[in-house]
Amino acid sequence: MVKRTPVLRAPGTAGPAPRSRTRRALVLGASAVLALTGVTGLSSPASAASSLDEAAAAKGRYFGTAVAANRLSEGDYVSTLNNEFNSATAENEMKWDAIQGSRGSFNFAAGDRVVNHARNQGMQVRGHTLVWHSQLPGWVGNLGAGELRSEMRNHINRVMGHYRGKIAAWDVVNEAFQDGSSGARRNSPFQSKLGNGYIEEAFRMAREADPNTKLCYNDYNTDGINAKSNAVYAMVRDFKARGVPIDCVGFQSHFNSASPVPGDYQANLQRFADLGVEVQITELDIEGSGSSQATSYANVVKACLAVSRCTGITVWGVTDKYSWRSGGTPLLFDGNYNKKPAYHSVLSALGGSGGDDGGGGGGGACTVSYSKAEEWGDRFNGRVTVRAGSSAISGWRTTVTVTSPQKISATWNGTPSWDGSGNVMTMRGGQLAAGASTTFGFTVMTNGNTSPPSIGTCTTS
User: Fold this and answer.
1) Residues in CB range of 242: below 8 A, 6 or more apart
2) pLDDT, position 379
3) Is the peptide bond before 45 cis (omega within 30 degrees of 0)?
4) CB of 131 within 8 A of CB of 190?
5) Interatomic CA distance for residues 343 and 13, integer angstroms
6) What angle do CA 173, 268, 191 make, to 5 degrees?
7) Count of CA atoms in the C-beta half-sphere (13 A) of 306
8) Rounded Cα gap, residues 433 and 52, in angstroms
9) Which is more confidently placed, 12 or 135?
10) Rounded distance between C-alpha atoms, residue 156 and residue 171, angstroms
11) φ/ψ of residue 299, rounded to 5
């Protein structure tokens, strides 16, 4: 490939969205139109998709993950996130204690980093969460009823106002019901001081704060038909009957061998959908490994696809090593970002091709290698060689992560995009014949830091 003149772009203000992301956004937009008309499937693409997001989008669904802002400087994390998901949920960064730990003092920095990265990559964003009994600053529980109602409104208005136009759906109220056979409300400052009406109040406040986003109720252990899900069902049915603004119900779907995917999972999703709300699988993870875990994941995906109003799936994390249940290895990528059998079962259930393994040597795979090229007092050039495996590939992607205060000032022989911080660049390129290679380059302004960049895993597209 002939080396082109370097193209100067400011990090974080890259040019048009990469073609693959543009395509995904178009498919998601089309799926939203189809959902409004009651049509749920899109025509099959010319070739089977090889990533989770594209396969889901071809079925009129999104496929997302929880994102931690402090991991967005890790190359393999960002590469996997960018290549496989088209929806992002801030893992902790939008919870009350993270945004308003002190009364009246709002800090959106970490949440903004997640939102900006997602939107820069053409992903939609789910907001999580506005009203929840946990991760709640102590000062909230010390308020009287009148002040608590006022602060609930203020928090909803400030947070939703800050992110207005950027959030596809908000978990307005989270985990408001107890486990067990009673189906009772959970004791919390909101419940004890504002009574049963606080959930309705929160939804009405949220609709006033942002009329254009979807408003969801979210909970766990409601995956099958049981006392808890019956209580949530009765609330949603009542809300719909009385015109309380609720658009969707989230099912967290945390499973393990003691609490497997219930046999009536699909039926439960369907009965909520029949109330006229969307159903979304919002925090999916399944402890285990091998074929058993893979089968359980596939069953969840198939259940969602069978329910026309099931609009998408979010797994709760990118890699096992950062999962809140890391000892149970519950996610689709292991601690080294290798695709697990569960990944392939999900992709297959979505109608995808099964994809490559993301590593080197295999058919359809690609590898990368880095070397430093020219060097000057305040900058240096990096060179990355991308090589196809034993089969031809239609395109490739990898990440380059520099250490702040370094910045990438120029690139050539690829299509770059940056995360919100400007420290992680995703580089994309076109087809390569089996065993063929290409190189791309970039200039790093050191700003006093001469450490080499980190190069992420190569994946095919």
Assistant:
1) none
2) 95
3) no
4) yes
5) 32
6) 25
7) 15
8) 24
9) 135
10) 11
11) -65, -40
Q: Return the closest-CA partner of residue 251 out of 188, 172, 314, 324.
A: 314
CA atoms within 13 A on the CB side of 314: 26
Active site residues: 175, 283
Amino acid at 301: V
* Residue located via tokens 């946990």: 134
Over residues 380-418, the pLDDT tens digits come to 999 999 988 878 888 998 889 888 899 999 999 999 998
State the average pLDDT over residues 119-146: 97
**Dihedral over alpha carbons 288, 294, 297, 298 (to 10 degrees):** -160
Q: How far is CA 165 from CA 2, 113, 222, 323, in A?
A: 42, 16, 30, 29
One-letter amino acid at 163 equals Y
Place of tokens 């048009």: 16
- Per-residue HEC secondary structure of the chain comes to CCCCCCEECCCCCCCCCCHHHHHHHHHHHHHHHHHHCCCCCCCCCCCCCCCHHHHHHHCCCEEEEEECHHHCCCHHHHHHHHHHCCEEEECCCCCHHHHCCECCECCCHHHHHHHHHHHHCCCEEEEEEEEECCCCCHHHHCCCHHHHHHHHHHHHHHHHHHCCCCCCEEEEEECCECCCCCCCECCCHHHHHHCCCHHHHHHHHHHHHCCCCEEEEEECCCCCCCHHHHHHHHHHHHHHHHCCCCCEEEECCEEECCECCCCCHHHHHHHHHCCCCEEEEEEEEECCCHHHHHHHHHHHHHHHHHCCCEEEEEECCCCHHHCCCHHHCCCCECCCCCECHHHHHHHHHCCCCCCCCCCCCCCCCEEEEEEEEEECCCEEEEEEEEEECCCCECCEEEEEECCCCCEEEEEECCEEEECCCCCEEEEEECCECCCCEEEEEEEEECCCCCCCCEECCCEEC
Residue 278 phi, psi dihedral angles, 5° rounding: -70, 150
The answer to whether the beta carbons of residues 387 and 428 sit under 8 Å apart is: no
Q: Which two tokens stand for residue 184?
A: 């009772």
Residue 1 has pLDDT above 50, yes or no: no
Identify the residue with better confidence: 361 or 17: 17
Q: pLDDT by residue (tens digit) across 87-126?
A: 999 999 999 999 999 999 999 999 999 999 999 999 999 9
Strand pairing report for 62-67 and 379-388: unpaired
User: What is the rounded distance in angstroms from the CA atom of residue 333 to the CA atom of residue 342?
Assistant: 8
Rounded to 5 degrees, what are φ and ψ at 54? Answer: -70, -35
Query: How many residues are recorded in the chain?
Result: 461
Kind of pairing, strands 169-174 and 214-219?
A: parallel
